[in-house]
Amino acid sequence: MNFTLSAWGLVFAAGINTCIGNLLLKRSRLEAPDPGLLSLLFSPWLIAGLVFYAINVVLFAKALDKLPVSAAYPVLAGMGFALIAITGNYFFGERLGLNQYVGLGVILAGIIIMSRF
To answer: Using CA atoms, how far apart are residues 57 and 44, in angstroms rounded to an integer?
Structure first.
């Protein structure tokens, strides 16, 4: 098995976990009985989001065994931006208009340029 290919798979899995973690954080605020800090800290949605963030960190750290951080992180971040924009629109009805699509295209182009090594 190509170790670099499996490392990129870990980066993509980490990107998906980042997206899920962010969606859970958003849900934690939508489901909060009040806007207070204690309500946030004891929210099962927040705790679940933090678990996904922890998994993200482990997957990304493992990917860095084989990949340069200067290539892997832009892919992780860009994938996170794109997935969060799309899923935020789908799950929460957040705006995803022409400006967002153009911005995602520019980010994608930048990632392609940055990740060439």
So the answer is: 20
CA 3 to chain centre: 23
Gap between the Cα atoms of 19 and 6, Å rounded:
20
Tokens of 16: 């998906």
Q: Quote the pLDDT of residue 54.
A: 96
Residue 48: burial class (beta carbons within 10 Å; 0-12, 13-18, 19+): middle
End-to-end alpha-carbon separation of the chain, Å? Answer: 21
- d(CA 43, CA 49) in angstroms, rounded, equals 10
Residue pointed to by tokens 């992780």 = 76
Q: Provide the whole-model pTM.
A: 0.85
* pLDDT band, very low/low/confident/very high, at 3 (cuts 50, 70, 90): low
pLDDT for residue 117 is more than 70:
no
The DSSP secondary-structure symbol of 65 reads T
Q: 80 vs 36, which has greater pLDDT?
A: 80
